[in-house]
Amino acid sequence: MDRASLNIQENQTAGRPKWKGGISGSTLKLIALTVMLLDHTAMAVLGRLLLRNGYARIMLNTEPGAYEVWQAQNMVILVLYWAMRLIGRLGFPIFCFLLIEGIRHTRSKMKYILRMGCFALISEIPFDLAVRGQILEFSYQNVFFTLFLGVVALCAYDFFDSREIPAQLQSVCLFAGIFIPGMYIALFLHHNSQRLFGWYISPRALLRVIIVTFAIIAFLLGVYACKRGLEPARSLAVNLGVMAVMMFAADFLKTDYASLGILTISVMYFFRKKPVRSMLAGNIVLTLGELSEFTSFAALLPIALYNGKRGLKIKYFFYIFYPAHLLILYLVAAAMGMGDLPGI
Q1: Residues of the chain with pLDDT > 90: what percent?
Q2: φ, ψ of residue 333 in degrees (nearest 5)
Q3: Residues 6+ apart with CB under 8 A from 79
Q4: Can you give the pLDDT at residue 151?
Q5: What is d(CA 330, CA 48) in angstroms, rounded to the nearest whole number?
Q6: Segment 285-290 long-range contacts (CB within 8 Å, at least 24 positions apart)
Q7: Cα separations (Å) of 319 from 29, 51, 109, 158?
Q8: Which of 83, 123, 209, 280 is deepest in the core (most CB within 10 A)?
Q9: Least confident of 66-75, 109-118, 205-214, 218-227
Q10: What distance in Å separates the CA atoms of residue 252 and residue 146, rounded to the nearest whole number?
Q11: CA distances (Å), 178 to each of 234, 246, 270, in order?
């Protein structure tokens, strides 16, 4: 081949993008959407089938061997139900990871926040139909509300991390970083002590819990200040305060994953520079908060293969898919005569 032919060939191939292995952001979204679809199909359809077949009744039946007989009769549905729910545990941590990537690369954080808030509202009726069999109820809100609060928290972290705190506010921020998380932890224990420990915390014991919590947080911030400096410690204190406020908001609104979801997003954000470590930290938080989330560790594999590329432009497909698939699943359940039953 002569020199002229070689030059022509080089010019033809110069503009072609070099292939890079791994998984793009759009592929991660499709993986998350797939496992979410499996999870919600199990919840909205198979869960209703189990209820129709007497699941609630058999759980109250104390007759020896009754549950074993019912289990044998519904074994196929039970196996499919639990397999799909466990696979579905991969979805939330991947969505959290994509949320952090999205807020890092978005052109307008305000538009990102508004978009999450709008689709949280749009998705609520399909979510209530799929989960509760009702057009609208307020005991349990869809995961978009959790992601919305997570985005607000991430924007606040970024805002305070990128700006030096004025001298007039430094002491206030440090106090807030001790007071707000301490109060949240105390209130959380007060409202959940019966579920967690089997007994209620008395007002006197609650006061001791508050004092001890304040002391522990102050001590940890002091250690951090000695190692990293006073300014980073104040920034950390502000972040802790923001995180506690968002966790309280998620619990108050009763969103999907609630405060555990905000904590997971926040921890993953703090480790964001290393994707695998970020996902590992998030999975640990999820599993410690809810043992049934242990299968979420499988999400480490696609994150380890993530190449940092955007991939296909399917941003709005993700937003539309969430309420659309919930509505379709409810309509399937209703067509099977189970629309009045809740999903489990």
Answers
A1: 50
A2: -65, -40
A3: none
A4: 95
A5: 10
A6: 285/260, 286/92, 286/93, 286/260, 289/260, 289/263, 289/264, 290/260
A7: 11, 30, 17, 24
A8: 123
A9: 205-214
A10: 11
A11: 10, 15, 19
Taking alpha carbons only, the member of 197, 157, 184, 190 closest to residue 249 is 184
Quick one: 224 exposed, middle or buried, by C-beta within 10 A (0-12, 13-18, 19+)?
A: middle
* Cβ(77)–Cβ(53) below 8 Å: yes
| CA neighbor of 184 nearest in space, from 131, 251, 129, 119 | 251
Q: Which two tokens stand for residue 311?
A: 């991939």
Q: What type of residue is 238? A: V
On whether the CB atoms of residues 190 and 201 are closer than 8 A, the answer is yes
How far is 260 from 299, CA to CA, in rounded Å?
18
Give pLDDT tens digits for 4-62: 444 444 444 444 444 456 889 899 999 999 999 999 999 999 999 999 988 888 877 77
Residue found by looking up tokens 């793009």 in the block? 24
- Of 37, 76, 134, nearest to 334 (Cα)? 134
CA 299, 302, 308, 311 torsion: positive or negative? Answer: negative
**Residues ≥6 apart with Cβ < 8 Å to 89:** 35, 39, 292, 293, 294, 295, 296
Block residue for tokens 């999820």: 286
Q: Specify the 3-state DSSP secondary structure of 20.
A: coil
Residue pair 265/152 in contact by the 8 Å Cβ criterion: no
Q: What is the pLDDT of residues 176-195, one digit of tens each?
A: 888 888 888 877 877 776 66
Sign of the torsion angle spanned by Cα atoms 180, 185, 189, 191: positive
CA atoms within 13 A on the CB side of 29: 23
For 279, phi and psi rounded to 5 degrees?
-65, -40
Q: One-letter amino acid identity for 8?
A: I
- The structure tokens listed for 215 are 């002391």
